[in-house]
Amino acid sequence: MRLVASTALIYSGIPGLRGESQLGRVVLDALATGAGLFLLAGLWTPVAGPVVAVIELWYTFSQPGDPLIRILLGTVGVALALVGPGKWSVDARLFGWKRINIPTGRVSRSHH
Questions:
Q1: CA atoms of 41 and 56, how far apart (whole Å)
Q2: 103 vs 91: CA distance, rounded Å
Q3: In this structure, is the dihedral angle defined by the CA atoms of residues 23, 16, 28 and 56, taken in order, positive or negative?
Q4: Which residue, among 37, 39, 74, 38, has the nearest Cα to 55 in the 3D structure?
Q5: DSSP string spanning the chain?
Q6: Per-residue confidence (pLDDT) for residue 57, from 0 to 100
Q7: Are the C-beta atoms of 5 and 80 separated by less than 8 Å?
Q8: Chain centroid to CA 47: how far?
Q9: Fewer C-beta neighbours within 10 Å, C or N terminus of the chain?
């Protein structure tokens, strides 16, 4: 999921960085490309995911065309932020891989 979303962000952001667009669009494309690179590496995922969501939400309402890819990328950005960077990521190497252990013991209930 991280690989597909980051590739789409980088691919869609690079053409806007060539300077042929307005300054605001170039800044957003630079942020989207940077966030895509961070997601690709699994670095700062809790920050990069919401950045992607905000940028894609902005594009959804400010740019003409089909908004479905923007909505999809924004949703994936939020999902990655909530799920985390994954086992093979820079964040996992720096901070450790988080695991949630659910106890398997039975709960006894007394009947009155």
A1: 20
A2: 26
A3: positive
A4: 74
A5: -HHHHHHHHHHHHTGGGGS-S-HHHHHHHHHHHHHHHHHHHT-SHHHHHHHHHHHHHHHHHHS-S--HHHHHHHHHHHHHHHH-S-SSSHHHHHH-----PPP-PPPP----
A6: 93
A7: yes
A8: 8
A9: C
Residue 54 above 80 pLDDT? yes
Return all residues near 61 (Cβ < 8 A) that are at least 6 apart: none
Pairwise CA distance, residues 48 & 96, whole Å: 18
Tokens of 65: 């065309």
Residue position matching structure tokens 């939400």: 57
For the chain, give the longest Cα–Cα distance: 76
pTM of the predicted model, to two decimals?
0.71
